[in-house]
Fold this sequence. Notes:
Layout: H1 2-10, H2 17-27, H3 37-51, H4 54-64, E1 71-72, H5 74-83, H6 90-100, E2 108-109, H7 110-119
Antiparallel strand pairs: 1-2
Helix pairs in contact: 2-3, 3-7, 5-6
Amino acid sequence: TKELGTVMRSLGQNPTEAELQDMINEVDQDGSGTIDFPEFLTLMARKMQDSDSEEEIKEAFRVFDKDGNGFISAAELRHVMTNLGEKLTDEEVDEMIREADADGDGQINYEEFVKMMMSK
């Protein structure tokens, strides 16, 4: 719950420990007690739909887009996922990028990010 709390706070949310545990239980499909990336996306999508606020989606995008260039690179994605306690192989990171990367440029732009968040 610690890493999830950090991410949620960086998105301007301020969940209690109990709320964090509820969020984890809600999306923890495999019952591991931790959230893997697909589960995280499901959670984020639900949060976004609850608030549906474009500002929050922009905020989330900025968390991933470390250098502020308007794109999420594989390295930036890996960095955030590592902070979430998610150890991913290069293949897994590339696969995640490919899934969201509609225009095939090897990174995720804001539109692709929004689409990914809304499609979950």
